[in-house]
């Protein structure tokens, strides 16, 4: 029997992401409402991520997603028409079985995720509730600490910094809105510092809206950021620092060594280097310190620094519960990055957050370096009380779309919300 949440139509199209490459946008329609969503795309991808289906050929330099779009408009549409958007898990399971592969390579994780996200939105609109409340109903929500990527390196920028992301984390704020203000102030101070110390080319920005100054050394980037925090009037405890090394990108598989800051380092030397940086800059978070298969190296650094520092696994887990279980068994990390498109459905992402919680890990909901204006992850982080949200600098439309949505959510929730900062500092 048709109800207000029965799917009447599903349609996808090809749109552009923030790097100007094609991506999938889907619309799911019920008799009450339409939900629309679009999927992001990474640059420094984990080897074990669900497959992003690209067309190949000449259009868009092979990056077209018309095959994924056709899969939505064909197989997925036929399989899902008549089902209810209220049953997110059921819809996702149906798509997983229609695909039938481990990594969603037949239909494409980009096709499946677009429909999964659009269904959640259609459910929220059909039921007249906000997306976060549709994802998880609660009397009280916790809003995440923004992790703002203010200096970009690695594969996200045209400079020589090997470390991919230098992040500020305003844990000392009393609300998400205040955290966003603090982050914006530090970002603007950093702009002035980089301009006066390194000239105009230093204020060009990278893929995630952070500055991409012509620096070479990890330390130099952190020194500039620390200066920006203090000239903005904040203490080191109010705005903590973090890095995402994305170290698979500077790992030399042949020799098992890492190329960083003009040196070739062994695993042990690199661990010492992180420990030094942690002590000097009080790093609260270190993401992907080692390449994505190095479970033991992760475990060693977590044992050494994990008391005061969140060691975050991104490429090593790829939001995949089977990979996470290996990490839990081996005490590889004490935190995880959560990305919808690494696994490819909303309910599997929810499952990964649940498993992280059970393991006692800190959970960070994250964007990709190629994003769209869709603020879905602001709702995801709110719904499941993520400790942090990592969604770029407080600049560029596709990044601020998420921060601005958090401002709206905080306003909507009024007294029914708290800010996660105090638990994390
Ligand atoms: C990361 C992400 C997001 P990408 O490594 O954490 O910042 O980068 O989307 O390029 O994988
Ligand atoms: Mg990462």
What features would you highlight for this structure?
Enolase-like, domain 1, 16 strands, eight-stranded mixed beta barrel, alpha/beta, three-stranded antiparallel beta sheet, TIM Barrel, binds magnesium ion, 2 domains, single chain, binds 2-phosphoglyceric acid, 40% helix, 425 residues
What would you say this structure looks like, in words?
- It is built from 14 helices and 16 strands.
- It is an alpha/beta fold and 425 residues long.
- The protein folds into 2 domains: 7-128, Enolase-like, domain 1, CATH 3.30.390.10; 141-423, TIM Barrel (Alpha-Beta Barrel), CATH 3.20.20.120.
- An 8-stranded mixed beta barrel has the order 5-6-7-11-12-13-14-15, surrounded by 5 helices.
- Helix 9 (321-329) links the parallel strand 12 and strand 13.
- The structure holds 2-phosphoglyceric acid and magnesium ion.
- The site of 2-phosphoglyceric acid has 14 residues, from loops.
- What is the tally of helical segments? 14
Query: What shape does the CA trace take?
Result: globular
- The proportion of residues in beta strands is 15-25%
How many structural domains are formed by the residues? 2
| CATH-defined superfamily of the largest domain | Enolase-like C-terminal domain
Q: Termini separation (Å)?
A: 51 Å
Largest sheet properties: 8 strands, mixed, barrel
- SS elements, strand count: 16
Structural class: alpha/beta
Overall mean pLDDT stands at 98
Low-confidence stretches: none
- Top-tier CATH class of the largest domain: Alpha Beta
Q: CATH topology of the largest domain, anyone?
A: TIM Barrel
What CATH architecture of the largest domain would you give?
Answer: Alpha-Beta Barrel
* Bound chemical compounds: 2-phosphoglyceric acid, magnesium ion
